[in-house]
Specification:
Elements: H1 2-15, H2 30-42, H3 46-54, H4 65-80, E1 84-91, E2 97-109, E3 113-114, E4 117-119, E5 129-132, E6 134-137, E7 156-159, H5 178-185, H6 198-217, E8 222-225, E9 254-257, H7 259-270, E10 276-286, E11 292-299, E12 304-314, H8 324-343, E13 350-357, H9 365-374, E14 376-377, E15 401-402, E16 409-414, E17 422-426, H10 434-441, E18 451-453, H11 462-466, E19 472-477, H12 482-486, H13 499-518, H14 536-541
Parallel strand pairs: 6-7, 7-8, 8-9, 12-13, 12-16, 16-19, 17-18
Antiparallel strand pairs: 1-11, 2-3, 2-10, 4-9, 5-10, 11-13, 14-15, 17-19
Length: about 550
C-alpha cells in the first residue's frame, strides 16, 4: 500500500505541470482591471444615462416616435463620448408604427370606479368616449366561436382564462444564492424529445389572426383581458393585440386591465349583475417610415482593426412602462461600458463595435436582420406568416450561407435580463471559451461574478450571432424582480433600477470587451448547428 501511494504521488507530481488550468496561460491585464473599476465605480454616468433614456424619452415601442427619439439620443450620446462612425443602420421593411396617445377606462355601473388599463399595441382606438356592456367570453380554439356568434355586437368582450390573483408568498425581489448559482452551473442534458414544432408556432399565429377577424365580424366594441400576470396589485403586463405587418393589424380596440379589477367585473357578470364600462382610447398608427433602425458606433482598432469585438443590448421596449429594466438597463450599461473604455483612452487591437437593437420584442428582428445583412442567412420560407421575416433562427429553413465578414467577428456580448448584477456567463455549449472566461472572471469574484455554465439561454439577441457560428454570450444576472414585477409591465420604470448593480455590470462588460479586443487570437468557435429536419406531416403541408 505504501509503495503504491509513493508511486501515485510521484506520478501526480510528474503530471502536475500538465494539469495547470489553461487560465494560467490566458493573460489578464490587472492594471487595466484596476483602471476600469476605478472609472466605472468613481465616475459612473450609468444612472444619468438611465434617467435620460427612461424619464426623458420613455417607452420605446419599435416603430414609435419615442423609439426614433431614443435612437437619435443614443447615437448623439455615443458621439459625445468620442466613438467613431456613430449612425443609424436601417433594416426592414418592418411594417406599421403604433403609439397610444390617451386611455381612460372606468366602470360606470353598478358604481363608478376608475380602472388601471393599457391599450394593447397595434390595435385601434375607440374614436372617442364609448360605453358598453361587458360579456364574459371564453374562447380557446376556433370551434368556440360558434358559442358566441351573433351575441357580441356592441358588447365589450371580457376575454381570457379565469385567473386567481395570487397572494405573494415569496419575496418578489431575488438575488441568486450560491446554491442557485451551482444549479445554473450544472449542465442539463438535452431532452431526447424533438423540439417544439414550428407547426405549433404557426398554429398560434393563425389562431390570433382568426380571433381578431372574429371580433371584427361580430362587431365587438372592445376586447379587455387581464394580461398574463398572476399577482395583480396594480401591475399590468401588456404586449400586443395584433400584428405590426401592413394589412394584418387588428381593427377592434384591445386593452389589458389590472387583474383584480378584471376579476371584479367577471364576478359581477357571473352573479348576473348589470355592468357598464366607459372607454376612451386614442391610438395612432404610423406609416411614414416602414424601415427601422439599429444604433451603431465604434472604437477603432489598431493592428487588428479589421477584426471586431461586439457588444450590445436591445433599445426597444413595450409601451406601458418606460422600458427601464427591459431593456434600458442593458442599453445604458453597454453605453457606459464603451464610455469607460474611451475615458481611459484605450487603443484596442480589434475594433470594438456597439450595436443597440430595435425590434427585439417582436422576435429579435433588429439583430436578425443585421446578422443576415453582414454575416450569414438561411433560405427564405414559403409560409405566409414568414413573408418578409428573417429566417435566421429557423433551422428547418435550411443551412446557413456565410458571408466573408462573419470571419472577422471575434465575439458578441449581450445584456438583457434586467437590472440585476452580473453573476456569470452562459457559454452556449462552447467549451473552448471556458478556461478563457475563467481567467477573466477572477478579478471580479469579489463583485459576485463566479459562475460559468455550459448551458444555453435564449430569448435575446445573442442567438442571432450564435446561429451563424459567431461566439455570442448572454450574462447571468440576478433576477431582482424582473419576472415578478417589471418584465413587460407598467412597473418597468426608473425606480426599479439598481444603481450599484448597473455599475458592476458596466465594469465587467467593459473588461470583457477589452480582453477580447486585446488578445492575440480571436475567441474559439463552435460548429454551426445543422438544419433541423422537418417532420413529414409539416413537409406535406407546404
Amino acid at each position: 500500500m505504501c509503495k503504491l501511494r509513493i508511486l501515485y504521488c510521484a506520478v501526480a507530481l510528474f503530471l502536475l505541470p500538465l494539469s495547470v488550468p489553461v487560465q494560467a496561460e490566458e493573460k489578464v491585464d490587472l492594471d487595466m482591471v484596476t483602471r476600469i473599476r476605478y472609472e466605472g465605480f468613481r465616475n459612473s454616468q450609468v444612472m444619468k444615462l438611465a434617467t435620460a433614456l427612461t424619464d426623458g424619452i420613455g417607452a420605446r415601442l419599435t416603430g414609435s416616435s419615442n423609439m426614433k427619439r431614443a435612437e437619435e439620443w443614443a447615437r448623439n450620446q455615443l458621439a459625445s463620448f468620442g466613438l467613431a462612425d456613430c449612425h443609424l443602420e436601417a433594416w426592414g421593411p418592418f411594417g406599421r408604427g403604433w403609439e397610444n396617445e390617451y386611455i381612460n377606462l372606468r366602470i360606470v355601473g353598478p358604481d363608478v370606479t376608475p380602472l388601471i388599463a393599457y391599450a394593447k399595441a397595434w390595435t385601434p382606438g375607440t374614436s372617442g368616449v364609448v360605453e358598453g356592456k361587458p360579456i364574459r367570453v371564453k374562447i380557446e380554439e376556433t370551434k368556440d366561436f360558434e358559442k358566441y356568434r351573433g351575441k357580441l355586437a356592441g358588447k365589450i368582450a371580457l376575454f381570457g382564462p379565469d385567473q386567481e390573483a395570487r397572494t405573494i408568498q415569496e419575496a418578489p425581489f431575488e438575488r441568486l444564492s450560491e446554491k442557485q448559482l451551482d444549479a445554473i452551473g450544472d449542465y442539463q442534458v438535452p431532452s431526447e424529445k424533438p423540439p417544439s414544432s414550428y407547426k405549433e408556432f404557426l398554429k398560434r399565429q393563425r389562431f390570433q389572426r382568426e380571433l381578431n377577424k372574429f371580433w371584427a365580424e361580430e362587431k365587438v366594441l372592445a376586447v379587455i383581458d387581464h394580461g398574463y400576470g398572476a399577482y395583480g396589485g396594480g401591475t399590468v403586463f401588456v404586449q400586443s393585440g395584433g400584428s405590426f405587418k401592413i394589412g394584418e393589424t387588428a381593427t377592434v380596440p384591445a386593452i389589458s386591465l389590472d387583474l383584480e379589477q378584471w376579476n371584479r367585473i367577471a364576478r359581477l357578470l357571473e352573479a348576473n349583475r348589470d355592468v357598464s364600462v366607459e372607454l376612451n382610447v386614442q391610438n395612432k398608427f404610423r406609416d411614414d417610415d416602414p424601415m427601422q433602425y439599429n444604433v451603431v458606433a465604434e472604437i477603432p482598432g489598431t493592428d487588428k482593426k479589421n477584426e471586431f469585438v461586439m457588444l450590445g443590448a436591445h433599445l426597444d421596449s413595450w409601451h406601458s412602462g418606460t422600458g427601464a429594466t427591459d431593456n434600458g438597463a442593458g442599453s445604458v450599461v453597454s453605453i457606459e461600458a464603451v464610455r469607460i473604455l474611451k475615458a481611459l483612452d484605450i487603443r484596442p487591437r480589434r475594433t470594438i463595435r456597439l450595436v443597440l437593437w430595435s425590434g427585439e420584442e417582436q422576435g429579435l428582428l433588429g439583430s436578425q436582420n443585421y446578422v443576415q445583412q453582414h454575416f450569414g442567412f438561411r433560405p427564405s420560407m414559403n409560409e405566409p406568416e414568414m413573408k418578409g421575416m428573417p429566417t435566421l433562427l429557423r433551422r428547418e429553413a435550411g443551412p446557413v450561407t456565410l458571408k466573408p465578414e462573419q470571419e472577422k467577428v471575434s465575439v458578441y456580448f449581450n445584456l438583457d435580463n434586467g437590472t440585476g448584477k452580473i453573476r456569470g456567463v452562459y457559454l452556449q455549449e462552447n467549451a473552448a471559451v471556458w478556461p478563457i472566461f475563467d481567467a477573466w472572471i477572477q478579478p471580479f469574484r469579489d463583485l459576485g461574478m463566479t459562475t460559468l455554465t455550459m448551458r444555453n439561454t435564449g430569448g435575446t439577441d445573442h442567438l442571432s450571432f450564435d446561429a451563424v457560428g459567431i461566439p455570442a454570450f448572454q450574462f447571468i444576472q440576478d433576477p431582482i424582480e424582473y419576472m415578478s414585477r417589471t418584465h413587460h409591465s407598467n412597473m418597468d420604470v426608473y425606480d426599479r433600477l439598481q444603481s450599484d448593480d448597473l455599475r458592476q455590470a458596466a465594469v465587467i462588460m467593459a473588461d470583457f470587451v477589452y480582453n477580447a479586443a486585446m488578445r492575440e487570437q480571436m475567441l474559439p468557435r463552435k460548429t454551426i448547428e445543422k438544419p433541423l429536419p422537418m417532420p413529414a406531416e409539416e413537409r406535406n403541408d407546404r
